[in-house]
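Teaching assistant's notes for section 4

Start the section by putting this record on the projector. Ask students to predict, before seeing the second block, whether beta-mannosidase will look compact or extended. Collect guesses on the board.
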Amino acid sequence: MTTTFPTTATETLRPLHDGWSVRSTGGPVPAEIAAAVIPATVPGLVHTDLLAAGLIPDPYLDRNEQKVTWIGESDWEYRTAFSWSPDGHDRHDLVFEGLDTVATVTLNGTELARTVNQHRTYRLPADGALVDGDNDLVVRFASPVAYADQASLDIGYRPHTYFHPFNAIRKAACNFGWDWGLDAASSGIVKPVTLHSWSGARVESVRPVVTTGGGAGRVTAHVALERAAGSDAALTLEATIMSADGTGVATAAVAVGAGATEAVVELDVADVELWWPRGYGDPVLYDLAVELTADERPAASWSTRIGFRTVVVELEPDADGTSFRVVVNGEPVWTRGANWIPDDAFVTRVTRERVAARLDQAEFANMNLLRVWGGGYYESDDFYELCDERGIMTWQDFLFACASYAEEEPLRSEVEAEVRDNVTRLMSHPSLVLWNGNNENIWGFEEWGWEKRLQGRTWGLGYYLDLLPRLVAELDPERSYTPGSPWSGDPERPANEIEHGSVHLWELWNRVDYPHYRDTVPRFVAEFGWQGPATWSTIRQSISDSPLTPESPGMIWHQKATDGNDKLTDGLVAHLPLPDDTEDWHWAMSLNQANAVAFAIEHWRSWSPTTMGSVVWQLNDCWPVTSWAAVDGYGRAKPLLYALKHVYADRLVTIQPRGADLVAAVSNDSSEPWEARVVLQRMSYDGSLLASATVDLALDARTTGSVPIPAEVAAFGDPTRELIVATVGVERGLWFPVEQRDSALTAADLTTAVTAVDGGYDVVVTSASLARDVTLLVDKIDPAAVVDDMMITLLPGESVTFRVTSAASLTAEQLTSPSVLRTSNQLVVDWA
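Reveal the predicted structure now:
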């Protein structure tokens, strides 16, 4: 048999991102837009193209969201042309990495595909439609709102949250609106488009299963190939592992028999450096490359980065219920995490640089895990690569959230296809520690009244207990899987059980005040949170109400939670008085958000190792809104982020109740033992020492201990004017026996000194009296300014230096004005 090789062997990838236009083709489109052919950016969305053309108002501003909902109710057409000539390759495929969502793709009038899943990659054979010369490529998008409505009728109603039946379409659920997100259902070519030209055979996918033990590592690379018609030649696959400095540490090759389309390459590394999460060691990465050759000529290649580590999420019965803990390389990790939502309502605006900025903020807050929530996306390669590099563990939900889902066709096949696509894409990342079946759907079935509404219809349990774990076991066998969040560890047990597995704690925000976090000791908290407004500069940038009040039209529009403002008020007034001034209201609500979340995490850390983690809802926002986020929709840190920095620190000292007594709870989540003296003092607000005791403490690394506070130290004379201070080295915790609103706080007696330094200013604040929660809200005078800390309580005679990073020319008067230099004293004294 004689094998004939094509003129060109090496594959080529040609991006097709230029020359696109978009126009409406149906729906309630304004006349001036219906007649327009608009330049389009690819990757991009209709919303962002219309914004760039100045044809719609910014949906983020005021109440403009309601002015552009027609976009999701309309049909659109994207079109471009590209030149092509025969190049000697056997095959030519158009590869769409992401189409959002209901699309028909035609090339020169020939239909190549109809798609209904945003979360898949589509490879479309184009040889039958390509022509020598100019080629017309058209992608028509049908209204996602209309499609979801019709699909809900076709497959039968399934209960869901919010307005649209997002559970009837495989599209990011939050794109249809959420209790923190705007209703901006989009259409567009949201990921790269490529003309892939290849010959003979190509690498379809590589699944590197990485294992390690005894200092050695093994990579078992499962390689899938595709062959062009009539190409049955024998091939060679060679895989190489290199260290970060480019040194080759392992190479292996296998012959691929004639006609075969699968192969496995095994590589052994005698001595590997392990990948560790933040705070446990370096996140060491290696490069893995796979080369395909035919008759000793290069045909295709594939590469990624990997890390050697073991990770298991343990759910094990014990005396306290069922554990939930992340164990990396044999070491249990106390999870200091946050939930991650899409970082922009228009996903194509989320750049690698923007992801890096959010991860900078996560690291600033001492986080070691981000949970990618199931109402958004399988996160980008950029997100995962950056988490790999930084040692930030990731938890990826499969994309089912707050709804019931049909298990029949046509959804079932779409679900399996998207899972295969994305598990294969993401499994090489060492940061990924857990696949999770859904967000709140099992809990919702049990407690939200879905069962009677379903009338016996399927609702997704078969996905979570059967299909998804089977696919994970097949494709990514070294990764842990949980059926849902929350998850108790047993299908026969209610999903959201405090003593078992992971829990979501929302009763406190919704109905009960935050001190009740102390009523229980959960094993792992995967969701909890408290709302607060966006930063002041973000509010002023996005809302033009005059006057601006907590309930003015724009402010209410940017509050998506049901009864959100009432819950903010109800959650504040037991702790701080409700101000009438809007700026004071903003400070009070921001502070209360930070206090509520810090209160919960301090409690849970004091109960380690019974409790092994908290994942706060949420790190980020997708637009400027009052929400549970620590970073607002314009990327500015709220006081909550600084509170997380404090309570997620390696070493933490708090004072906690244990029955009728108090203890100093000391957490040492560092890699070194902590030997220090615990100094316990009861003091008056004027700084007088009323009682004291000292205790020697020795804590091993990664442990938590407690020191009883002697009765004489805890015997308050006047609770409204006294506090307990527990000091361990440079760390300390404070205990105030009454709420701030009931205390005898006086106006903070502050003196300040401002010095210009490289990149900004040092602001020294000294207090002659007790000053609680000293904070600089520097974004009020420079929206780009950032301060290095917030919410520092000063005892009489103490000072703190704040570093303000700003390129603006700021005066001492601006930096220390009463609206910028804030304390909780202001709120209490002004009210009193």
